[in-house]
Amino acid sequence: MLLGLQRKNQELLREAFIEENSLIIDVAQCINPYALEEFYESFERVYVIEVELLYKFKKVIEQLETLIQKYALKKIIITNYKHLFDYNNKVEKEHILTHIWLRMKELSTQIQIVVGISSATQKKYAQTYCDIIR
User: Fold this and answer.
1) Smallest Cα–Cα separation from 75: which of 42, 133, 114, 101?
2) Which domain holds residue 57?
3) Cα 30–53–125 angle (5° rounding)?
4) I need a surface site. Which of 10, 36, 100, 118 has the fewest CB within 10 A?
5) What is the CATH number of the domain that holds 99?
6) CB of 117 within 8 A of CB of 123?
7) Distance CA 45, CA 55 (A)
């Protein structure tokens, strides 16, 4: 299932600790272990990949199937990505984001993927690709 959540990043991060073997793709660069201290005992069951570039985000999404199998992942959380660096090429950005969302939709048949939604662009993609938006 591909689930879009209109929540703050800290709330999204907490979602990862509910399920064992979760992956956080932190595109908002917001993870702070001290803010998640209540989940300290769960830290070893949650993997984190920090992403700052749109192009790295695409690369990580392309490698998700391997990561799902390698780490027996049960849930993937993607923080709000409205600040990803790109080269201001709107056409290229649109193509990359469409590719990312299509790939997430494909993978969501194997694993639950939760995507943070905080901008109009994210909402547009979420309305097209997500099974549920809350």
Assistant:
1) 114
2) 2-133
3) 80
4) 10
5) 3.40.50.300
6) yes
7) 27
